[in-house]
Amino acid sequence: MLLRVNINYEGIKIISDSNKNIENLPFNDDIIEKYLNRYKHSKQSVATRKSTLNYFFKEEYFGYNKHIFEISKKELLDYFDYLNQLDSISITTKQLKWRILKSFLDYCVDYYEDDFDFVIKFPNRLVKWKPMHKDPNSNADVFLTIEEIKTIIEYLKRTNYKYYLIFRLFAESGPRKGELINIDYDKINLEKRYFDTIGKRGRKAYFFSEDLRNKLAMFIDERKLIKAETKALFLSAQSKRFSNRPFNTYLKKITPKLGINKNITCQVFRRSLNALRFKMGCTNDVILRILLNHSVNGVNFNNYVKKSLDYEKYLSYYDEWYPFKNIKL
Questions:
Q1: Structural domain range at position 106
Q2: How far apart are CA 83 and CA 120, in angstroms?
Q3: Alpha-carbon span 237 to 43, nearest angstrom
């Protein structure tokens, strides 16, 4: 049997009498995997896109179960209506899922059009979001006190030493989650007390305390003895670089047991660090932004570190505005 995919006013139809052989039709899973591989430079992007596509394909959600090349405009409209009526996710999340599905189908058309005459017309005129949706589950106003940070860190020190080091870095250095995941053990300068990493906005450098330096030194020596395909400082149970999900999941698991009833994520540690610095009296916005690697006009902190220009000045900023001087983490 031969396959041809053509568009009509309803969307995509499958008809025969083409010079394309149906036996060569790729499986849905292979198509999705090839699409996700385009974003493998970012584990977070892959995870987000995979989770988003699950809403369209998985049975517990919309449950599309035919071949990707058979997706019709009617089915896309039905999926839009399904998203639009969901009360469990915010409008921002719904729009993200819709955009990623469109990105995926645009990719399919560009990649497979020549081999299978595959084209698709994405609906636009009838795509109108209803006015009322679930409020976003935002924790933008959530901060941690020094006492709460100490409670979390002390608990981790007793129960999970790897996570203890991870969250000490979140607490006192303030990297973003992806930046911490991307730390390699050979990118840590113990003498100068900073680590070099990479995030969505390029390479970054963060300082850490003298006490943490000593603990990292011992941890790095042990880490070098572990055989792994990556130089990641922190390895998962599978001896691979961590994905984005475990840290926040772990926080949600332990914080209620510690009597902390806040929506705490890794980002909250970063936000709280500068709030604590501000509470100490650091009102210089340039210093606050530099220490958390925010962009500052005329300042490229990463180059300063690499070229050893004004290095001591930035380290002195870090030490001067270190909010945990009077407690033991």
A1: 2-116
A2: 20
A3: 17
CATH number of the domain where residue 206 is located: 1.10.443.10
Q: Evaluate whether residue 326 is within a structural domain.
A: no
Convert the pLDDT of each residue in 79-121 to its tens digit: 999 998 888 788 888 999 999 999 999 999 999 888 887 778 7
- Judged by DSSP in three states, 143 sits in coil
- Say which DSSP state 129 is in: -
User: pLDDT tens across 269-302, in order?
Assistant: 999 998 999 999 988 887 777 787 764 444 444 5
| Among 43, 33, 292, 273, residue whose Cα is nearest residue 144 | 273
The residue-averaged pLDDT of 45-74 equals 91
Cβ atoms of 295 and 265 closer than 8 Å: no
Provide DSSP, 244-312: SHHHHHHHHHHTGGGT--S---HHHHHHHHHHHHHHHT---HHHHHHHTT--BTTB-HHHHHHTTSSHH
